[in-house]
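In the design runs reported in the main text, the only information available to the sequence generator was the tokenized backbone. The following block is the verbatim input for one such run; it is reproduced so that readers can re-run the procedure and compare outputs position by position.
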């Protein structure tokens, strides 16, 4: 008989759970019964360089609690994952309070504020502000390395641990597409290789590493800053960007992660690059509206092929 909360008793750390995919992944892990440590830099008393005060890690923890019912629990821990001492203190706390770590999610980012992603004409690497570019590298790569270095000794204490690197784009798509500008490309292709390499190292401990990407994500910032819409009327944005019709809510990747974490044969994915749409076909979950968008297949076969926007057969 299938358990309503298959992750009951599991301990998860979602690093970068303030908003967007990270928040949704924390919530869906909690809904599945896990105790979730939600970390980030924006709290009710402090706003990070991302500059959005409307989402906080405390709110994420409360959403986890609301979704989890009696089993799971959300625990907010303010953490700058570029500060090793803060991350070590976080892991020490998890060990002291729980004695184990079963799921580690590296969803750390925050680099958009240093890039002009909305510009059609992106500058060449040597034309970009070097300090901003290197900051993007720290936020999108170094933070993941610091977190894994500190947390994997606890994760590997027990077989069955799962490390999830979160990025933008599948290995297949990013290999064939320059995700300009230069520093964004590096930040979003590197986690794919991280998952592959760490998968090799984790194998002997009976643990698994994967890289997971959403499709075109309807994050809070995407909705209200890029398109000035809400989740309720997001389709209005398709007038500006017709291919936005393939977009997905953060809940979709949250459900993808929960399905992975509950799979007793998750090791079959070790080292691989996975997507929310691809895993929906495998595990049978849907987005919050009941659809199952397959964004990366759509982008390759429709958008990049220059065809008119038409999501028929893709969601």
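Verbatim output:
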């Amino acid at each position: 008989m299938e358990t309503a909360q298959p992750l009951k008793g599991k301990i998860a750390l979602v690093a970068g759970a303030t908003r967007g995919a990270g928040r949704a992944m924390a919530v869906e892990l909690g809904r599945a019964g896990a105790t979730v440590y939600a970390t980030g830099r924006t709290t009710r008393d402090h706003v990070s360089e991302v500059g959005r005060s409307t989402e906080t890690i405390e709110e994420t923890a409360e959403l986890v609690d609301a979704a989890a019912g009696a089993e799971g629990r959300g625990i907010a821990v303010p953490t700058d994952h570029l500060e090793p001492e803060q991350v070590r203190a976080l892991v020490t706390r998890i060990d002291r309070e729980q004695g184990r770590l079963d799921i580690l999610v590296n969803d750390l980012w925050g680099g958009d504020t240093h890039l002009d992603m909305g510009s059609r004409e992106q500058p060449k690497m040597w034309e970009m502000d070097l300090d901003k570019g290197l900051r993007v590298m720290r936020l999108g790569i170094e933070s993941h390395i610091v977190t894994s270095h500190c947390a994997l000794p606890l994760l590997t204490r027990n077989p069955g641990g799962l490390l999830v690197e979160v990025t933008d784009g599948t290995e297949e798509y990013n290999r064939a597409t320059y995700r300009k500008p230069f520093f964004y490309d590096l930040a979003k292709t590197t986690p794919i290789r991280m998952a592959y390499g760490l998968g090799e190292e984790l194998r002997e401990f009976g643990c698994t590493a994967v890289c997971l990407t959403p499709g075109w994500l309807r994050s809070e910032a995407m909705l209200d800053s890029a398109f000035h819409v809400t989740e309720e009327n997001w389709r209005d944005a398709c007038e500006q960007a017709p291919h936005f019709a393939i977009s997905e809510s953060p809940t979709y990747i949250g459900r993808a992660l929960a399905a992975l974490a509950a799979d007793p044969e998750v090791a079959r994915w070790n080292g691989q690059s996975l997507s929310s749409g691809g895993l929906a076909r495998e595990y049978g979950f849907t987005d919050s509206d009941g659809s199952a968008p397959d964004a990366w297949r759509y982008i390759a076969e429709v958008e990049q092929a220059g065809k008119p926007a038409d999501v028929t057969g893709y969601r």
